[in-house]
């Protein structure tokens, strides 16, 4: 059935081994693999849990961790909740996440109470905001950082496991030796002030891995959290391909449902499209247009590239995508399948959609 996301498990294993070589052998960091990009797909999770190089398996949704916590723990991996916990999910966080990332004292108190109720000790990683302005205590707020650390250390059922930063996801701030060195300095300050040893200093996500290959990752960083680097084979700072990986382990495929010659400019007064935006059209004259059965509900057209380089994506509504196949050397017919490499957005939406079938190679 189509549309479908084809997942090549052999290529993904190759990618996993590629990022493991960079992260663990070159960077001397522990490896945390993030599953949210494929919505914790069961076969991909099996692959991750079987691999000896993986130390932690992480997701931003507690519902996803719930589906594989038992499998991961049996395989010797620790489970990690990346998104700050919501108050309504505290019981599941304690139950299914060995470690959670946090920045709010009120949430930490709730975690401590629930951990006491479940008679466990829960590990927490304190997020430090180095300027990307997503989650974390701002790195210049010294009093807030020291106060939070002090209070966590006083909680009987929480362990301060480490500190971490997230960069590029909101403010698009690129990890550099300079800004990550601030995180390392905070690790040293906390350890010295409170006479403790932090187990984890997590230097970010797939946007930080390029620093290892350049020899510029600060030495105190001992963990990276990799999703896109593993799944799509590239760093997210500059979009460069990582050595030993491939970018076609996941392909999105959709079937042609209409194929006609029509003008390239809509006729009549133009308003806004289905998503409230005013579109701009290029006058290509009369063209051969293919409609495929997938749309914005199921994918992100801005992060898709047809394998047929002579096919252009013109646009999409919620459930139709319009292609210009005029210059293609292929003689497309109704029912033919068009294949696309995917970027992060297309992969994420395709993996999450119930209308996109997942198949494996």
Automatic annotation (TrEMBL):
The protein's matches in InterPro entries, at most eight in alphabetical order, are given as: Ala_racemase, Ala_racemase_N, PLP-binding_barrel
* Bilayer-crossing regions: none
Isomerase as a keyword of this entry, yes or no, is yes
Q: Name one GO molecular function term.
A: ornithine racemase activity
Which Gene3D superfamilies does the protein's record reference? Alanine racemase
User: EC number(s) of the enzyme?
Assistant: 5.1.1.12
Q: Which residues form the Alanine racemase N-terminal domain?
A: 7-229
Offer one Pfam family short name for this entry.
Answer: Ala_racemase_N
Example GO CC term: the record gives:
cytosol
Task: Name the UniProt key words of this record, in alphabetical order.
Answer: Isomerase, Pyridoxal phosphate
What cofactors does the UniProt entry give for this protein? pyridoxal 5'-phosphate
Q: Which of the seven top EC classes does this enzyme belong to?
A: isomerase
Q: Does the keyword Acetylation apply?
A: no
This protein's source sits in the domain of life called: Bacteria
Protein name in the entry: Ornithine racemase Orr
Q: Which organism is it from?
A: Hominibacterium faecale
């Amino acid at each position: 059935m189509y549309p479908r996301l084809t997942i090549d498990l052999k290529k993904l294993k190759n990618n996993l081994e590629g990022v493991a070589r960079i992260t663990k052998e070159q960077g001397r960091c522990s490896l945390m693999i993030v599953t949210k990009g494929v919505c914790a797909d069961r076969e991909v999770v099996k692959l991750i849990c079987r691999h000896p190089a993986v130390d932690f398996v992480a997701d931003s949704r507690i519902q996803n961790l719930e589906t594989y916590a038992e499998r991961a723990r049996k395989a010797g991996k620790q489970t990690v909740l990346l998104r700050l916990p919501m108050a309504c999910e505290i019981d599941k966080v304690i139950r299914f996440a060995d470690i959670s990332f946090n920045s709010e004292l009120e949430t930490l108190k709730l975690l401590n109470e629930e951990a006491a109720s479940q008679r466990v000790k829960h590990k927490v990683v304190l997020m430090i905001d180095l300027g990307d302005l997503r989650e974390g205590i701002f790195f210049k707020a010294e009093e807030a950082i020291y106060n939070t650390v002090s209070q966590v250390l006083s909680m009987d059922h929480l362990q301060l496991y480490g500190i971490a930063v997230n960069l590029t996801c909101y403010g698009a701030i690129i990890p550099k030796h300079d800004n990550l060195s601030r995180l390392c300095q905070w690790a040293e300050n906390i350890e010295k002030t409170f006479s403790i040893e932090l187990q984890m200093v997590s230097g970010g996500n797939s946007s930080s891995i390029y620093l290892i290959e350049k020899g510029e990752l600060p030495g105190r960083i001992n963990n990276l959290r990799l999703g896109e680097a593993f799944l799509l084979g590239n760093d997210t700072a500059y979009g460069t391909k990582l050595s030993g990986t491939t970018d076609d382990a996941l392909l999105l495929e959709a079937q042609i449902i209409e194929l006609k010659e029509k003008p390239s400019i809509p006729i009549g007064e133009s308003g806004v499209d289905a998503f409230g935006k005013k579109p701009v059209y290029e006058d290509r004259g009369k063209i051969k247009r293919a409609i495929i059965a997938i749309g914005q509900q199921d994918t992100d057209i801005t992060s898709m590239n047809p394998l047929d380089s002579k096919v252009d994506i013109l646009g999409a509504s919620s459930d139709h995508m319009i292609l210009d196949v005029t210059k293609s050397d292929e003689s497309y017919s109704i029912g033919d399948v068009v294949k696309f490499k995917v970027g992060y957005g297309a992969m994420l939406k395709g993996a999450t959609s119930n209308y996109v079938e997942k198949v494996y190679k």
